[in-house]
Design a protein that fits this description.
- This protein is an alpha+beta fold and 192 residues long.
- Among the domains are: 78 residues, no CATH class; 55 residues, SH3 type barrels.
- It is built from four helices and five strands; from the N terminus they run H-H-H-H-E-E-E-E-E.
- A five-stranded antiparallel β-sheet has the order 4-3-2-1-5, with no helix packed on it.
- It starts with 20 loop residues before the first helix and ends in an 18-residue tail after the last strand.
Length: 192
């Protein structure tokens, strides 16, 4: 079921977003989160959220308060505190299992690359560009591997400037070509 407080309810001018903030926060706090298996409201208050429309008449609550037994209420409150702690532990376990599954999926997609000293590599430039060129390569280099560090860190050295820096090994790929001349290209046509 779609939430009635969808971000598209704000007008095109986006000036009335602050008026919708309370409803958006309420929708977020009462929405079911699959990683923890609860809503954020349940995690804090240990019970599911009831809208004011669903609550019974105030007279019923007044009668219930007048027939209040403090000893039974104290015992009930202790039970509720234990239930809340149990619910939070269960949410922690659900979140932990969810994170393990996501990490396993992510790690499965990682390509293991082995680099050695003196090897020539290309570096992927992941910086945001305002005007990216379609045909321009995002791989820069070649650079020489100066040092292979632990956990996939690689120290590179630029042969022209002799500058060195450390990058993540996932941003590198082996370079198998010769010299790159990006400024000029020569095309020769042979007519038979």
């Amino acid at each position: 079921m779609a939430s009635p407080y969808h971000p598209q309810t704000v007008s095109a001018s986006r000036k009335d977003w602050s008026a919708k903030l309370d409803e958006a926060l309420w929708a977020y706090r009462t929405a079911y989160k699959s990683p923890i298996g609860l809503t954020p409201f349940q995690m804090v208050y240990s019970k599911s959220c009831h809208l004011p429309v669903h609550l019974e008449h105030k007279v019923f609550w007044a009668v219930k308060f007048l027939n209040f037994d403090q000893e039974k209420a104290g015992e009930r409150r202790k039970v509720q505190m234990h239930e809340l702690e149990e619910m939070r532990n269960q949410a922690y376990e659900s979140s932990k299992l969810y994170k393990e599954r996501v990490k396993k999926y992510h790690d499965k997609k990682i390509i293991q690359r082995q680099f050695r000293l003196g090897q020539m590599v290309l570096l992927f430039n992941s910086r945001l560009r305002l005007f990216p060129c379609k045909l321009k390569s995002k791989w820069f280099g070649p650079f020489m591997v100066k040092e292979v560090k632990s956990y996939g860190a690689i120290e590179l050295e630029d042969q022209a400037t002799k500058a060195s820096w450390t990058v993540n090994g996932q941003r590198l790929k082996p370079y198998f070509g010769g010299e790159i001349d990006r400024l000029t290209s020569t095309i020769s046509l042979n007519n038979p």
